[in-house]
Amino acid sequence: MGLAIVSSVVVLIVGLMMINFIMPEITVFRNSLSCSSPADISDATKLLCLVGDSVVPYFILIVFSLVIGGITSRMKLWKNY
Description:
By secondary structure, this protein is an all-alpha fold. The protein has one domain. It is built from 4 helices and no strands.
């Protein structure tokens, strides 16, 4: 049980550290599509800008769900014994 919590915390820390590597790529993506001037771009490009902006929140949700899933799966296995 303790190992599950420790390994989940390690996954959480590594996952949140990966955001620092993702953010420059999102900035390059936004600059290449010129998302900062929305009046000059088409609707499809606006949609791509929204998808690019939603990468970080979805990544954080995935990391949290992995951590919570890891802890709860160990709790279910531990409860059966």
